[in-house]
Write a structure and sequence with these properties.
globular; 178 residues; 7 strands; alpha/beta; Rossmann fold; 6 helices; single chain; seven-stranded mixed β-sheet
């Protein structure tokens, strides 16, 4: 049983009540839909924005970033930076895609994250490992595997810029379609 799709009211015995504000949790039924959500959110990004992406391996974090990059007009193919740590995608805004899966506290502090935020937007897989100062004004997206094809993306925010991105997230059309 899954969350009703955005825009459809929860009704009947199969409905799941989350207690979350409308638009906070979205269910994606495909890789393409996850990418469309990222693409739709990309238009709201500005230099200095931080997106904290959390969830298990295979939950759609990299596919979401692929949508962000496409939405910003980047031409590069998006790949997981698990081994390279950082990929950069240039479009209307530079998108820095960081993966902290293999790093721990002191290693993360030495990455020069201040410079990345000054140069563009930062989307961070395993973002819960970011220093607290970077999560203080960020949009956090939690990714959950519901089935082989379905993923749940749950948004929360901290700080004024995180709240502004959260408001955009809540207004995104179902499936992220423009």
């Amino acid at each position: 049983m899954t969350e009703p799709r955005e825009g459809r009211p929860a009704t009947g015995a199969g409905a799941v009540a989350t207690g979350l504000p409308p638009g906070t949790r979205r269910v994606s039924s495909s890789v393409e839909e996850t990418e469309r959500l990222g693409e739709a959110l990309a238009a709201a990004l500005v230099t200095g924005d931080v997106l904290v992406l959390s969830g298990p391996l295979g939950s759609g974090k990299t596919r979401f970033v692929a949508g962000l990059a496409r939405g910003l007009g980047a031409k590069s193919r998006v790949r997981s930076p698990s081994f390279t740590l950082l990929n950069e995608y240039r479009g209307a805004l530079t998108l820095h895609h960081l993966d902290l899966y293999r790093l721990e506290g002191p290693d993360v502090e030495g990455l020069g994250l201040e410079e990345l935020v000054d140069e563009g937007a930062l989307a961070v897989e395993w973002g819960e490992k970011l220093p607290a100062w970077l999560r203080e004004d960020a949009l956090t997206l939690g990714f959950e595997v519901l089935s082989e094809s379905e993923r749940a993306l749950t948004a929360s925010a901290a700080g004024p810029r995180g709240a502004a991105l959260f408001a955009v997230w809540q207004r995104l059309p179902a499936g992220g379609a423009p």
